[in-house]
Amino acid sequence: MKQTSKQKNHQEPSPYGWAITVFVMAVVLSSVLSLTSETILNEAGLVISVLILCVFIMLGIFFDIIGVAVTAADQRPFHSMAAHKERGAKEALMLLRNAERVSSVCNDVVGDICGIVSGTTAAVIVIHLQNALNTRNVLLSVAITALISGLTIGGKAMGKAVALKKSTQVVYMTGRFLHIFSRKNKR
Fold this sequence. Notes:
By secondary structure, the protein is mostly helical.
């Protein structure tokens, strides 16, 4: 059976193209976040290092919530909101129509990078604590790593519950935020 030109234009994009895009996005974002955290941590004391660690843990949890909510939310309420020209509804629909990619970026790219940078930050915190306590105890390193893992995993578990129960609200708030940067809004 011969395909028409309309059918040819609506073929699924190559998964390899998306994989390459995600790879490049991950390399760039990882480089920027790593360089930024390394620069700040180089001169930072223990308190600043802990604050940076908390920021990266929260960022990972926040993006995980968005990634899960986008895969769980229903489009129907957003069609109604878009018909009533509510701010952020069109952006929310765009997120939902691209749920697989949005989830991949939020959960995999941003989430994994935050986890990696958290690990680097944890190493800096361990060194600060070992220097302050004048010890090289491996148990301190294990305890800090375990605590950070628990906070990250526990936070993401709680975040997933919120994302599933409040998926419409999470997607709508994300759409509202994205609306601020939309081209039509700037005219």
